[in-house]
Structures are given as structure tokens and as C-alpha cells.
Amino acid sequence: QLQLVESGGGLVQPGGSLRLSCVVSTFAMANRAIGWFRQAPGKEREGVYCISGNGGSAHLTDSVKGRFTISRDNAKNTVYLQMNNLKSEDTGLYYCGAGWRCSVYSSDYEYWGQGTQVTVSS
After folding, report:
1. What pLDDT, in 10s, does the model give residues 25-67?
2. How many degrees, rounded to 5, is the angle at CA 34 between CA 68 and CA 121?
């Protein structure tokens, strides 16, 4: 069983940057796709970005294209989500999930962390 722990959230002004981290509990992360999702109050969980076991990545929503990037360091069992030029609509609870392939559907991810809050506000 995998355990995931997110960190790096916080309060940031519009236009600012944050880097989120997702630490996975086992070296088995190397075989897993890790996806970042977010959920704003009153809204459904939305896919943001995903990186596969072989390092291929894909944004899961066009709203982050050109602003967010994803990377992984298998030696540290960690996946990073670099978020630049943040907007108020990026506010939400950000989760990372582990699955066998990248997908926009949260049901395709077997394991989830508890989330880290990102608030973009002036």
C-alpha cells in the first residue's frame, strides 16, 4: 500500500509561484503514474497535471498550460508541481494520487494524500 503526503501549499498573491511536493512512501513509486488534482469549495475534484512512471507528463486541464510544470525525482520518491503565474481560480485543496497510468479521472488513481491548501488572493 502506498502512502502519499503533500506539502508546499500556502497563501500567495496573484502572479506568484508555489512548488508543491508529493512524497510517496515506497520505492515502488517509480512504476506509478502520479497525478495532481485540486478541489475548490463546492466544485468537483479536477485533474491538473500528471506524470507517468517513465517520465512522460501531461496537463489534465488547459487552464494550467504554460504556467504549471510537473517533475519527479524517483531517488527521493517525490513528485513536484511547480505553479507559476498563479490566479485566483487556482485556489483549492491540491491532492496527489497514485495510479498505473495518467488519467483525467480521479477514479483511476488508487491511493491519495490528504491534500495541501493553495490560496491565491491579494
Report:
1. 876 677 899 999 999 989 999 999 999 988 898 999 999 999 9
2. 35
Measure the CA–CA gap between 30 and 44, rounded to whole angstroms: 29
Amino acid 36 reads W
- Model confidence pLDDT, tens digit, residues 67-114: 999 999 988 999 999 999 999 999 999 999 999 999 999 999 999 999
Task: Work out the angle at residue 64's Cα, subtended by the Cα atoms of residues 51 and 56, and round it to the nearest 5 degrees.
Answer: 20
SS3 14: coil
Give the residue among 49, 26, 57 at the shortest CA–CA distance from 97: 49
| Residue showing cell 504549471 | 68
d(CA 25, CA 66): 30
DSSP letter for 60, please. S
The grid coordinates of residue 113 equal: 494524500
Q: Is 18 helix (H, G, I), strand (E, B) or coil?
A: strand
If we measure between CA atoms, which residue out of 62, 68, 64 comes closest to residue 84? 68
